[in-house]
Design goal:
globular; 40% helix; 12 helices; alpha/beta; 15% strand; TIM Barrel; 10 strands; two-stranded antiparallel ribbon
């Protein structure tokens, strides 16, 4: 186990080996996490799965599972309902259950965002045991700055603690969002969110990336990584972009600025299956296997 990610103190002695196994499976022993985001069927609804330059296969939820089955992924983050529908076909995938989700239909102008947990950790643990489907972690989103943040912070704290009690990995998505937030890509604000994740005891936190005047500034990640302490920072993947740029930014984030992984959805699943698998493998190679951008690009050409 990496010193940077010690075993959480709330993992019971009899669950330490389970936690170590789950953590090492998720990170390939590197301490870094490649998270394949399959939760966007709720978060972004159909707009990210059908349209211009999106292959027809992406419209079907099975596409996500086929990618995760054929590619190298650290965890496949998805709602429990999709695992219920498709998990028996792919029982050995390293699943991370996204416990809360919301659609993008209600705007911030209408109401501050809130996402309550759909299931308890206990229900997920029981489902995994009875179904023999490999669930190794749970995830949860907190919208800091929302008038509902107190509810979400309380749920997040309980979820992290209950997951650790069962030897499970935890990932928090922490996104500043709501009427109180004027710039959700502000580096100091994101650093604050990173610190909150550490205070909640999370193993990893998925965050927005810092912008200055609408331009990505990777060097600002340093203060975010410091603020996160020994909670690993995952940068969001964002909208689909040219693979070379995406992989170059990813390499800089991880191997220069010392983030500890990524959470990527659209840059993987908005491709036909064969190309999606290649892209996922290239992302995994940089994230977990210490490959260069040049080596990763060879994998997708």
């Amino acid at each position: 186990m990496s010193i940077q990610n010690p075993i959480p103190a709330d993992v019971p002695k009899e669950k330490i080996k389970i936690f170590q196994s789950n953590f090492n499976r998720a990170t390939g022993g590197s301490g870094r996490l490649m998270l394949f985001a399959g939760d966007q069927k709720v978060e972004h609804m159909n707009s990210d799965f059908a349209g211009k330059n999106i292959p027809a296969d992406d419209a079907h939820p099975l596409h996500l599972f086929q990618i995760a089955a054929k590619a190298k992924v650290g965890v496949f983050a998805v709602q429990l309902g999709l695992i219920i529908r498709y998990g028996k076909q792919f029982p050995d995938l390293p699943y991370l259950v996204k416990l809360n989700s919301k659609t993008n239909l209600v705007s911030v102008e209408q109401n501050d965002p809130v996402g309550k947990a759909w299931y308890t950790v206990e229900q997920v643990v029981n489902f995994s045991k009875q179904s023999k489907i490999n669930i190794i972690g749970v995830g949860y989103t907190v919208y800091l700055g929302s008038e509902h943040e107190a509810e979400m912070l309380t749920e997040a704290a309980q979820i992290v603690h209950q997951a650790h009690l069962n030897g499970m990995l935890t990932v928090l998505w922490i996104y500043p969002k709501g009427k109180a937030i004027s710039n959700e890509h502000d580096a100091d604000l994101i650093a604050g969110a990173a610190g909150v994740a550490n205070c909640l005891g999370a193993d990893f936190v998925k965050l927005k990336i810092p912008f200055v005047k609408e331009k990505y500034h990777p060097d600002l990640l340093k203060k975010i990584v410091v603020a996160a302490g020994n909670t690993g920072v995952l940068c969001e993947g964002g909208a689909k972009e040219y693979p070379g740029k995406f992989l170059n930014d990813l390499h800089h984030q991880i191997h220069v600025q010392k983030t500890r992984g990524n959470g990527t959805g659209r840059n993987i699943h908005q491709n036909k299956l064969s190309d999606a698998v290649k892209m996922a493998n290239a992302i995994y190679a940089i994230t977990v296997e210490n490959k260069s951008v040049k080596e990763a690009l060879k994998m997708i050409k």
